[in-house]
Each structure stands twice: as C-alpha cells, then as structure tokens.
Amino acid sequence: xxxxxxxxxxxxxxxxxxxxxxxxxxxxxxxxxxxxxxxxxxxxxxxxxxxxxxxxxxxxxxxxxxxxxxxxxxxxxxxxxxxxxxxxxxxxxxxxxxxxxxxxxxxxxxxxxxxxxxxxxxxxxxxxxxxx
Length: 132
Fold this sequence. Notes:
By secondary structure, this protein is mainly beta. It has 2 helices and 8 strands.
C-alpha cells in the first residue's frame, strides 16, 4: 500500500482522499446506525477492506485476531450497508453511517456497546447493561 504524501493543509483541508494507515496498515473505523446514530461497532479496515466497502457498499473489516479480511454478516447474513463514509481531519480514522440488517454484535444484540461503566463501582461489578 502506497501512502500519498500530502502537506498538512492538503490532508486537512483538501479534497484528496489519502487514508493514513497505522503501523499495521489499519484504520480505526466506527460504524453508527444511519437512522438512530447509535454506535454499533468499532473495528479496523486495511486497504482491501476499505476498497471492498467502497466497491460493494457492504462493510468489510480486517480481523486482527484472525488475521483475515471479513465482511460483516458473511456468515450470519446481518450485513452492514454503508450509507455514508466520513473521514477525520488527518485521515487516520473513519466513521461509517450504515443500515444494519440484523444485530451487529456477535452476541446477538443490536450494538457491541450494550454495557455502561458505573464509575462509582468496583471493576468486578462496574458493568451495567443498557438498552440498545
């Protein structure tokens, strides 16, 4: 993957899409529900996942644990259909607004963010389920 060299001004203010991958060749990607704006999942994309997402409209990721490319919903059918892709100011993170076709989390709930942390409780009892 060849990273395009841009000046800071070109990267932050220009029109050239030039993703800035980390040392492992990944971009942090936050997927939110295009209707409710609820955060569904945070995952990583490599150049191939980004290309396939843009090409197909179905969200793809790079699995760091399995070291392989995967399309969300490839086995469950619960795909994420991309509606819009946003890039941050220095182009090293993405937000994808998507329409989920079923639960997003592998646990079967709509969002991977289904628990909150109670700051006043000890870690052993600090997680509280929230409605997603």
